Amino acid sequence: MANGEKEWGLKLNRVKRSEMKAGEGRVAIKTMVQMLRSNAAINHDDQRPLIPMAHGDPSPFPSFRTAAADSVVNALRSARFNGYCANSGLLPAREAVAEYISRDLPFKLSADDVHLTAGGKQAIHAVISSLAQPNANILLPRPGYSTYDAAAALSQLEVRHYDLAPEKGWEVDLDSVEASADVNTVAIVIINPGNPCGSVYSYQRLEKVAETARKLGLLVISDEVYDHITFGSKPFIRMGVFASRVPVVTLGSMSKRWMVPGWLLGWLVSTDPSGLLQKSVFVTHICFAEAYFLYWLLLALLLSAVGAS
């Protein structure tokens, strides 16, 4: 460098535009939302208030309130949660998550199957980074949730998109899945209920996804952040129902159902009665811890949900 200065070795992990594949130079959803909310897109003669529907944040609406705040206050006043806790999270809270998920499954989960995270996004980054290895790739839905693409890029894990079929209610296009997978594919991500399309997969469709993943030898990562937030006649079915056929990692959080997205409480659950994930040492790579007192909130709200069911 000039003046004899040493060049800094620090480099950003950034893919050059010249190395991007055709079709990857897309406009971000956030940019489109900003354009729609700009002065050019708003009719100023219309006095109706704008409803923010792009962020998935239920907390601005004052008509919905939960017991979350009381649980946090009680936990703080108890002075029982000022120290460190286990990296995988408070044991009673993990037991509560296991019970919450198990009520929708044909078998019982334990606290050992649960890792607590700082929200759903950390759960995404945890599972994606644990799968990263040279030449590996992962299947993501298109349309999908962009955090998965970002997490894969950060871990240098190649992304391959499979299509959702709009004419079939945005169901997984299994032909697209099989065409996208190869011997280096480590996992497939499904989002159910769907984000951004709102699809709710039937038992039959999830069963076909499980059979396809089993045939291809893929771990299924099931994003169920919107679990049980469904309308109409189609019920919510967990992907873990089919874990006896294919290993499933379920991602979830308190954000949507309990309307506290800013508190960043999430979980990552291994549903693997055959023990394939343990054999691959996948689970041992996951090690996080959230604010201790917030785990007590998680415990209180999940126990109330299980008791009400």
Automatic annotation (TrEMBL):
The chain crosses the membrane at residues 292-308. It comes from Opuntia streptacantha. Belongs to the class-I pyridoxal-phosphate-dependent aminotransferase family. Gene3D superfamilies: Type I PLP-dependent aspartate aminotransferase-like (Major domain). Its cofactor is pyridoxal 5'-phosphate. GO terms for biological process: L-tyrosine catabolic process. This is Aminotransferase class I/classII large domain-containing protein. One of its GO terms (molecular function) is L-tyrosine-2-oxoglutarate transaminase activity. CDD domains: AAT_like.
